[in-house]
């Protein structure tokens, strides 16, 4: 995910703005997927300036205020395109959907196999 402004689609000039947008995108993605930030296991953050972590840390602590429950974080330096100063990817385990059967049958995220497709 990048730090694009969600309203304009443009990349802001400052790392502070990009970091705030990126963490906002993380929240929105997880909400749309039926989860939340508590479901994140790990995040990998790419910074154009490896030592320029103040904006990252400010947003990180805002999203994860309790140090005991923060996900793992890996920060690396990267050559990013078109004025981007920060990017991330994450791994999250979302809660099961209420429509997912307990017996392991097909749920909303699985495709039922038709009889004609069975071996």
Automatic annotation (TrEMBL):
Residues 95-119 are annotated as: Disordered. SUPFAM superfamilies: YjgF-like. This is RidA family protein. CDD domains: YjgF_YER057c_UK114_family. Transmembrane segments: none annotated. It comes from the Bacteria. InterPro entries: RutC-like_sf, YjgF/YER057c/UK114. Residues 109-119 have a biased composition (Basic and acidic residues). It comes from Myceligenerans salitolerans.
């Amino acid at each position: 995910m990048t730090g694009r402004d969600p309203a304009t689609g443009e990349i802001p000039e400052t790392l502070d703005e990009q970091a705030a947008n990126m963490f906002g995108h993380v929240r929105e993605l997880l909400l749309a997927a039926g989860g939340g930030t508590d479901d994140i296991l790990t995040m990998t953050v790419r910074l154009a300036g490896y030592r320029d972590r103040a904006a990252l840390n400010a947003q990180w602590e805002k999203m994860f205020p309790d140090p005991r429950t923060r996900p793992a974080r890996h920060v690396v330096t990267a050559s990013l395109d078109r004025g981007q100063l920060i990017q991330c990817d994450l791994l999250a385990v979302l809660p099961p959907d209420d429509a997912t059967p307990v017996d392991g049958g097909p749920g909303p995220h699985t495709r039922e196999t038709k009889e004609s497709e069975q071996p």
